[in-house]
Design goal:
Layout lengths: L4 E6 L4 H12 L4 E8 L3 H11 L3 E4 L14 E4 H9 L6 E4 L7 H9 L3 E4 L3 H10 L8 E3 L2 H10 L7 E8 L9 H4 L4 H4 L9 H9 L1 H14 L6 E5 L5 E7 L4 E5 L5 H9 L32 H11 L3 H17 L5 H14 L8 H22 L1
Parallel strand pairs: 1-2, 1-5, 2-3, 3-4, 5-6, 6-7, 8-9
Antiparallel strand pairs: 8-10, 10-11
Length: 383
């Protein structure tokens, strides 16, 4: 009999976090959620805690306690309190679904504490892969991103020496086939409408610019120790094949499934087992009219190219890339800049960046802060 898995969900009120809560509610006999953490949505956090019987919750930012908080609910604030939750002796798995570089410290604390890390925060490895991966024991990090979960599943039981290429699939976002003149005129409302996935606003914009796929290239490089030259991207609009692995004998393995983040979340928690999902509608291959593939347009969507270059340069370059992108995306969502300005600001920040080897979490967070200030200046010049 498999013992109950004791889990902490970080970022529980975000898109992935809410779906992780759904998975936990579907398997009350298999999953015990010990604690939840969110950025600032206290009302939803309390609602989730009540549904799951959780008594420990945390917010990244301090707020005044609300009168409707249950008396038996323990509420803490800040990264140090979240680290205390992670270090609890009764925790088996930390599911990190925090958005952006804010999740880096939690991933670091999880690995240092020897807990299994179900990683939905790709920025942890984009920014801190050089620091985090040497801390991770084999199998300690289970990827939750659908593409990296697919690659992980394809590699189970395989000799990594026989891997020829990793193929990351991309939907192409809502503007696949558009030219730059068309992209210059779009607004945030248009960019937030994704054709196949339901995601949070930041990752949805990253999908529209193809930056998300660039960040995933860097994440895959660290997770699977594969050279950048062997990591490929292919546009697959149906989002049914989540990624593929090409082997030295010429064969491919692919992982298929409906575009539903609950599946990779569940796999990261159940691995090495698979849990039945009677509530999930199965993929019916007979209803698929076609599975299409095409190369990404890196001239129109330049963020993908910028991300690959930053990853290949290594050191602190991916940190600068991510910081500039996070700041520019927030500015776009606030209506301060245009869609193509995201790419321009990222490019200018990378041009100004003085690359250094990555040596510590503190150093990388300093680079993040400096780059954001650069991006702020570039945004003022843009508008």
């Amino acid at each position: 009999m498999q013992k109950t898995l004791r889990v902490i969900i970080l970022g529980s009120t975000g898109s992935v976090g809410r779906q992780a809560v759904d998975v936990a509610k579907n398997y009350p006999e298999r999953i015990q959620v010990l604690a939840l953490a969110a950025h600032s949505n206290l009302s939803l956090l309390c609602e989730q805690a009540n549904e799951l019987g959780v008594r420990d919750v945390a917010l990244a930012t301090r707020c005044s306690p609300q009168p409707d908080i249950p008396k038996d609910l323990r509420l803490g604030f800040g990264t140090s309190y979240i680290a205390q939750l992670i270090e609890r002796d009764d925790v088996d798995v930390v599911l990190n679904a925090i958005v952006g570089v804010a999740g880096l410290k939690a991933s670091f604390a999880t690995l240092k504490a020897g807990k299994r890390l179900a990683l939905a925060n790709k920025e942890s490895l984009v920014v801190g892969g050089d620091i985090l991966m040497p801390l991770a024991a084999p199998g300690q990090i289970l990827p939750v991103d659908s593409e990296h979960s697919a690659l992980y599943q394809c590699l189970v039981g395989e000799d990594v020496q026989s891997v020829c290429q990793l193929w990351l699939t991309a939907s192409g976002g809502p503007f696949r086939g558009w030219d730059r003149k068309q992209l210059a005129a779009i607004d945030a409302t248009q960019a937030l409408t994704h054709p196949t996935w339901q995601m949070g606003p930041k990752i949805t914009i990253d999908s529209a610019t193809l930056m998300n796929k660039g960040l995933e290239i860097i994440e895959a490089h660290h997770l699977f120790a594969i050279p950048y030259s062997n990591i490929c991207v292919v546009v697959h609009p149906q989002s049914i094949i989540h990624s593929l692995v090409a082997f030295s004998d010429g064969s491919f393995k692919a992982q298929l499934g409906l575009p539903d983040m609950r599946l990779p979340i569940q796999y990261a928690l159940s691995h090495p087992r698979r849990w039945p999902t009677p509530h999930q509608k199965p993929l019916d291959l007979t209803t698929l009219m076609s599975l299409d593939f095409q190369p990404p347009d890196t001239e129109t969507f330049g963020c993908l190219k910028l991300a690959r270059v930053a990853g290949e340069q290594g050191g602190t370059c991916p940190t600068a890339l991510n910081a500039a992108n996070e700041f520019a995306v927030a500015a776009f969502l606030d209506g301060k800049i245009g869609f193509l300005d995201i790419e321009r600001i990222v490019e200018r920040c990378l041009e100004q960046h003085d690359r250094k080897p990555a040596t510590s979490i503190e150093q990388l967070l300093d680079v993040d802060n400096v780059t954001r200030e650069q991006a702020r200046r570039f945004i003022r010049y843009t508008v």
